[in-house]
């Protein structure tokens, strides 16, 4: 598993780069991004501005622009699912550092963040900071890495963390949400996965006893777990379950009563039995996994 660090103090050294800057216009953010890329050992960098992002990458222009466009689509879809309000549109653009080599990322971590990266670390983000950023790279030795997929997943994870605030979000929720967004962006390619989930969780008769399948998202293993996690996060953000998603996030915030809340604790906090969640999710699947209003 990749180690991702999101603790706010990681950005303290980044802020030193712009301590004298009073404005955070897109042009100023591009200057910040260019300086950071230079410190990461990237001498030729493309800076592409979109509605919500400043994408910095060593990729040539012909590949950098499509990457930025794809990441903006991912960002917009994720924000729609998480129901960010209209005021968010005026927020500072997030810098996305999309490195083509893990050594560039590691140099970025050491030289810009002043943090020694873990051996298998390939991503960090802090979207709550004064200068929001997401940094990603492919794994070492990965052949023909799909930077759109790699960076897009991290954009989704970062936005979910931003929405969750102090909530203790588990890896299955973050990874599942990223996959759910990808499924929404590419419905044709997701048809096989959706069909597989429907086979795992067919609609039940009203009188049938529920033997939950949905809990495999947080307690299962293997391919089925990943499929169910993606489908459940799809249900909780895009689908009918979105009505209770905010309550679930609130219930995942540590309190004096529960210092380390689990998803099971969150369900209790939302007055949602696993069996009821499972049945509602199955009904939604059987209806074709429609998007919520």
Overview of this protein structure:
Helices cover 49% and strands 8% of the residues. It has twelve helices and six strands. The protein has helices at 12-16, 26-39, 61-82, 102-111, 147-164, 171-185, 191-200, 216-219, 222-237, 242-251, 263-269, 274-286, and strands at 4-5, 46-49, 53-57, 94-98, 123-126, 133-136. A six-stranded mixed beta sheet has the order 1-5-6-4-3-2, with helices on both faces. Strand 5 and strand 6 (133-136) form a beta hairpin. Helix 6 (171-185) packs across helix 9 and helix 7 (191-200) crosses helix 9. The two termini are 35 Å apart.
Radius of gyration: 20 Å
* Helix residue percentage: 40-55%
The number of strands is 6
Low-confidence segments:
15-21
What sequence of helices (H) and strands (E) makes up the elements? EHHEEHEHEEHHHHHHHH
Q: How far apart lie the N and C ends?
A: 35 Å
Major sheet attributes? 6 strands, mixed
The amount of beta strand, in percent, is 5-15%
Structural class: alpha/beta
Mean pLDDT: 90
How many DSSP helices? 12
Secondary structure layout plus pairing:
Blueprint: E1 4-5, H1 12-16, H2 26-39, E2 46-49, E3 53-57, H3 61-82, E4 94-98, H4 102-111, E5 123-126, E6 133-136, H5 147-164, H6 171-185, H7 191-200, H8 216-219, H9 222-237, H10 242-251, H11 263-269, H12 274-286
Parallel strand pairs: 1-5, 3-4, 4-6
Antiparallel strand pairs: 2-3, 5-6
Helix pairs in contact: 3-5, 3-6, 5-6, 6-9, 7-9, 10-11
């Amino acid at each position: 598993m990749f180690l991702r660090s999101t603790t706010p103090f990681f950005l303290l050294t980044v802020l030193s780069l712009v301590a004298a800057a009073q404005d955070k216009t897109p042009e100023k953010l591009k200057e910040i991004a260019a300086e950071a890329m230079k410190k990461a050992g990237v001498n030729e960098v493309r800076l592409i501005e979109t509605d919500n992002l400043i994408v910095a990458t060593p990729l040539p222009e012909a590949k950098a622009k499509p990457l930025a466009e794809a990441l903006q689509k991912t960002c917009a879809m994720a924000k729609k699912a998480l129901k960010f309000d209209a005021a968010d549109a005026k927020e500072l653009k997030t810098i996305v550092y999309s490195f083509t080599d893990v050594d560039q990322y590691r140099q970025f971590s050491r030289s810009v963040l002043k943090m020694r990266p873990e051996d298998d670390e390939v991503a960090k983000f802090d979207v709550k900071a004064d200068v929001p950023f997401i940094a990603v790279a492919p794994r070492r030795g990965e052949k023909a890495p799909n930077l759109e997929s790699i960076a897009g997943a991290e954009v989704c994870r970062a936005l979910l963390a931003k929405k969750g605030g102090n909530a203790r979000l588990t890896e299955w929720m973050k990874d599942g949400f990223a996959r759910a967004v990808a499924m929404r962006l590419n419905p044709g390619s997701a048809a096989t996965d959706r069909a597989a989930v429907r086979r795992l969780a067919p609609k039940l008769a009203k009188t049938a006893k529920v033997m939950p399948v949905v809990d495999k998202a947080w307690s299962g293993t293997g391919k089925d777990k990943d499929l169910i996690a993606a489908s459940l996060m799809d249900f909780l953000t895009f689908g009918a379950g979105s009505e209770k998603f905010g309550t679930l996030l609130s219930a995942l915030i540590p309190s004096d009563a529960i210092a380390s809340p689990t998803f099971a604790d969150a369900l209790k906090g939302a007055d949602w039995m696993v069996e009821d969640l499972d049945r509602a999710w199955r009904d939604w699947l059987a209806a074709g996994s429609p998007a919520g209003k």
